[in-house]
Here is the input.
Amino acid sequence: MRTCAKMRCDSEPVATVSLLYAERVVSIGELLAERDRNLLDLCRDHVERMTPPVGWTVHDERIISIPDSPALAV
Ligand SMILES: [Zn+2]
Here is the structure.
C-alpha cells in the first residue's frame, strides 16, 4: 500500500511534493498516479505541517475544485 513518505507515518498520501533545488521552491501538487521516488507523497497532516527550508518558498499547485460553481460568463 502506498503511504506517506514521512518516517513512522502510514497515512494515505493526498499530495505529491517536489523540491525544486534550482529555484528553491517546494511545489505541492496533486497526488501523482504513480509513485516517483524522487518526489514525496505526503498525507494531509504532513502537507499542512510541512515547513520549507530557510530561504525556500512553498507553491501550492493543487487544483482546488469548487463543486457547483457557475461557469464563467463569457
Ligand atoms: Zn504523514
